[in-house]
Amino acid sequence: ILQLYVPLNWFGTYYRMIQKNFIDMENMFDLLNEEQEVIDAPGAPGLDVKRGALEFNNVNFSYVPERVVLRNVSFSAPPGKTVALVGPSGSGKSTIIRLLFRFYDVDNGAILIDGQNIKTVNQKSLRKFMGVVPQDTVLFNNSIKYNIRYGRLTASDQEVVEAAQYADIHDRINTFPSGYDTQVGERGLKLSGGEKQRVAIARTILKAPAFVLLDEATSALDTQTERNIQAALSRVCANRTTIIVAHRLSTIIHVDEILVLREGEIVERGRHEELLSFNGVYADMWQQQLKNEDADARGLALTAAE
Ligand code: ATP
User: Fold this and answer.
1) Which atom of ligand 1 is nearest to the CA of 19?
2) 91 CB less than 6 Å from ligand 1?
3) pTM of the entire predicted model
4) Rounded to the nearest 10 degrees, what angle do helices 223-237 and 193-207 cross at?
5) pLDDT, tens digit (0-9, with 9 covering 90-100), for 148-206
6) For ligand 1, is residue 64 a contact (CB within 6 Å)?
7) What is the pLDDT of residues 7-34, one digit of tens each?
8) Interface confidence (ipTM) of the complex
9) Ligand 1 test: best mutation among 28, 59, 85, 94, most atoms within 8 Å of CB?
10) DSSP of 204-239
11) 3-state DSSP call for residue 57?
12) Contact 53, 241 (CB under 8 A)
């Protein structure tokens, strides 16, 4: 009993951990062979994406019946535009991303992609169009080349290198002992958080999805790394409908729309300047961040705001 119990329990814990952080969501179910929360209707058609419009229509959602996590959430992300989600811890930002990936179905309302309710299409086709850049990318114990190619298994070596260049990690890889053949992951070369995030960006570039779901890193990175990552991110998000969970407001000054969430509700929305002029929740968050950030980060925010 013990032998059986331990690994199952371990899988459960691991499963919840990766689900929470939506690390490598695309193959999680395959890898862990877990029962899926969401079941496709028999013969559910594939999602058809032509424009890349995304819409939340009065979405309500609870993980457990006693507690509503999202309440009447409505917004739209027009094709190619970027919407940022901000708000305190637990306000429901990651839940919005998980629902978009259809880890769960909404309780009420609908999520529409180019007019199709994602509840009615098969999950595999939906996920094909979603590129995820998580906060903390899990690397396989394999070569760095394999880890990047994972975004599109049919990509050529040349395409892998181009994606790495695009993601600003190519030069770094060339400093590794065996270049692109260097083993990385837990049993190989360990990469920093910023490097792992650039691997995720390179993967996403190879995948070339219609939608990018991005969970910005919470940890502070040094200014140069931060700049490299921002540059790589803006390249991968360009002309793609993008949803960003943002932790540092300085990185979303230019986005098309910012949604401010509190306890599962959108309490403010608009562009950065507009939100500041409301003198409300967002303006408070902005003041707080300016106070908290160290001089370095403050310099970056002010430069970006100019
Ligand atoms: P953070 O900035 O800390 O990541 P968040 O805004 O992304 O927070 P969510 O992760 O979306 O917040 O969580 C919203 C609420 O739902 C929280 O109160 C959280 O405790 C709850 N929650 C999240 N995942 C689950 C789950 N699997 N089961 C039950 N409750 C959950």
Assistant:
1) 27
2) yes
3) 0.83
4) 10
5) 999 999 999 999 999 999 898 999 999 999 999 999 988 899 998 888 989 999 999 99
6) yes
7) 444 555 555 555 444 445 544 444 444 4
8) 0.97
9) 94
10) HHHH--SEEEEE---S---HHHHHHHHHHHHHHHTT
11) strand
12) yes
